[in-house]
Amino acid sequence: MTSKQAEVMRLYRQGLSTCEIAEYVLELYRVEVSADLVSAVTDAMLDEIATWQAQPLEAVYPLV
């Protein structure tokens, strides 16, 4: 997942609509995208996210 995809998913998880995400992308990256494209991207990534969420946790996570 690229950093831009991660940003779109973060916004989506926060409850922004696809139109609001499209406006955000335009403002931040100066790239015009449609709400339909945002929807297609988030839909395509949902399987990847579900797979990541289903992975088992490690027994120990060391902190530095």
Describe the structure.
It is built from three helices and no strands. Helix content is 67%, strand content 0%. 9% of the residues are buried. It is mainly α. The protein has helices at residues 3-13, 18-29, 35-54.
User: Given the structure, what is the number of helices?
Assistant: 3
> What's the number of extended β-strand segments?
0
Largest sheet: none
Distance between the termini: 25 Å
Residues in helices, as a percent range: 55-70%
Q: Report the sheet-strand fraction.
A: under 5%
* Envelope shape: elongated
Provide mean pLDDT, rounded: 86
Low-confidence stretches: none
Please tell me how large the radius of gyration is.
Answer: 15 Å
Following the backbone from N to C, one meets helices and strands in this order, namely HHH
Task: Name the structural class.
Answer: mainly alpha
